[in-house]
Amino acid sequence: MVSISRNIFYYKWFRVFISILLFALLTSVSGYRPMAASNEYAGQANRGELSLSGYDWARGPYVRLEGEWEFYWGALLTPDQLHAGERPESSYIRVPGAWNGAAVNGGKASGSGYATYRLMVALDGQPRTYALKMPYVETAYTVWVNGELLGQVGQVGKDANGSQPKFSPRTLLIGSPGPTLELVVQVSNFHCFSGGMQDSPILGLPERIDAELQTNLSIETIMVGGLLAMGIHYMVLYLLRRKERESFYFGLFCLLVGIRAPFLEAGVIYYWMPNLDWLVGKKIESVCFFLSIPAIVMFVHLLYPQEVKRAAVRLMFGLGMTCTVLVFVLPVPWMTYMVPYFELATMVSGVYIVFCLAVALYRGREGATFVILGTAAYIAAVSVKKWFDPQYFHTGEVAFIGLFAGAMLASFVLSVRSTKAIASVESLSRQMREMNVGLEQKIRDRTAELERINRSLGQVNEDLARMETSRRHLLSNISHDLGTPMTLIQGYVEALMDGVVQQEQQQKYLKLIHNRITGLNRLIQDLFQLSKLEARQMEFDIHTVSTDELFRFFDERYELELAGGGLRFETASYILHPGDGRPALVKVDTNRIDQVLTNIIYNAVKHTPQGGLIQLHFIVDEHSLVVQVQDNGTGIAPEDLPYIFDRFYKKDKSRNTSGGGSGLGLAIAKEIVDFHGGRIWAQSRLGQGACIAFMLPLVK
């Protein structure tokens, strides 16, 4: 047990170390920007002008065009209109940032509206190709560079009917603009609660911007794949073990976040699906957000039910489900107005969860350290993204990184629990094996001995049952079938003793008595033989013979005897499969099979008229030897066929009792065939003869 505890200890802190290292690595990769990215050397735009004439493009590959831009609220101006002096009075607005609440024309801009941005950038005049990476602009824009229309995303308009929202990542190439670069951007928003350029356009060298873009997309794709993989993994674990509801809610959270993530930041989904409808994407993003928070709150509640109260879980579930329903009910832009309020609720619930986790940590709950670190990482990342001014602090994808790191840390709790459970099972299993050394073998030996005894008892019981049945049959038959002959003999003897029979008839009565006694003797012998067969006490001399030997043995055995009785006799053999040339083999007692055939043939003789035909057929197929005795005598009635192999079947038309037989011949034949593992049956039509056949299995 000591070694197992150590393994769990090492495993736990190894996971902590790896998680911290991975978090630091991802944060550093995501937050990394060349020095120029912070505009330390490029400066900020001032009153619509930005000077980059002394900027060293070899040292800093790109510049964020941020600061004060000229801003024309309520006007969609082209470069020609701006140059012609037709422009209204301008104001200035900071980029990046939403235009909500911006001071314009003595008032404040609302979230819905349209405007024109303008920035003049002074360059060094060197012949150089630039790339302009446009950010996510809510919700449609048109961009001109030096009077040339370079790109349009969505449809810019002056009302909701005339505008069309869209998001499509764009990187525009600018060939040798000269010493001055004029950037004019028309923006309209009637479909979202906030509008404007909430991130900065980036100007730089094409190869550097493309490399940065590819790096960000790769990191985001990896993290999305990781979240989806974790979600599927824990969903499968829940399907395998339904009691672990924590796995279900954590897997659901990872799936929802993994689906939502491509719609955020760099918008990876729009590189995969450039024609994706803006409204569809917005609804998917919103629904995943509204459902993911209740899922993670429920996950923490299941981990620590005494710390996280059920009322808080119900509140978040109610808010999430309500917002989800409203997404499909409310029109744009009203559905987007729920997002900031739900973000506020998320932050409040996050603070509550951190407090509950701190209590759980204080109480020594398992895995509380992992969960509180993950939650704190996510809240810190969201806070940085939400409240830090992006013009001074470039958050990049820090919120997504924090979320990913938090999910990984939380997943370690489930991993540690599973590891401990597996370790406990292994420990118990090993202890059971140590305690049960030799027990399995003893059980197997005792079981085998009991099975042997049980089989022996079963065989004895079966033998006793057969003997008892045979005894009852014998006593019944003796009392029933010997009664009539004995009564007749008694009557004949009394007639002789009383002098009723005349002298000349006494010889006749004595002959009748002798015949009756002879029949009784034969009946008694048959009864004893049948009883021994039924009790399996008859000895059999079983040996393997070929079917050819049996053919030769029985071929001429009955012909001479039947011919003397005025009957014709024929034999024939048939092989129904070619085989490999070797004769088929059967295991039989030849004398007993001879007895079977004798009983069947002489039964046929008694019911075949003079000149009739009796045929003996041997048929060999793939699995058995079939022997048939066919006659053209009186036949058997259909109602008698099922009973002809019963002992003493007492119908006058029965073949068992006609002609003075004992009525046991076919019953004896059936028992002998059964002993050989075969079966016997009869086929007949009244007046058209009968066929009695039996089957013996071949030796494999």
Structure, described:
It is a single chain. By secondary structure, this protein is of the alpha+beta class. It folds into four domains: 1-31; 39-204, Galactose-binding domain-like (Jelly Rolls); 217-415, Up-down Bundle (Rhopdopsin 7-helix transmembrane proteins), CATH 1.20.1070.10; 540-697, Histidine kinase-like ATPase, C-terminal domain (Heat Shock Protein 90), CATH 3.30.565.10. It is 50% helix and 17% strand. It is built from 17 helices and 22 strands. The chain has helices at residues 2-31, 79-83, 206-240, 245-260, 268-272, 278-303, 310-329, 338-362, 368-387, 398-435, 439-481, 483-497, 503-534, 547-555, 559-564, 590-605, 665-675, and strands at residues 49-51, 62-64, 67-73, 91-95, 103-104, 107-108, 113-122, 129-134, 137-138, 140-145, 148-153, 170-175, 180-189, 196-197, 202-204, 543-546, 568-575, 585-588, 613-620, 624-631, 679-684, 690-697. Strands 1, 3, 4, 7, 10, 11 and 13 form a seven-stranded mixed β-sheet that branches. It has a five-stranded mixed β-sheet with strand order 17-19-20-22-21. A four-stranded antiparallel β-sheet has the order 2-15-8-12, covered by helices on one side. Strand 21 and strand 22 form a beta hairpin. Helix 6 packs parallel to helix 8, helix 9 runs antiparallel to helix 10 and helix 12 (483-497) packs antiparallel against helix 13. It is elongated, with a radius of gyration of 52 Å. The chain starts with a helix and ends with a strand. It comes from Paenibacillus validus.
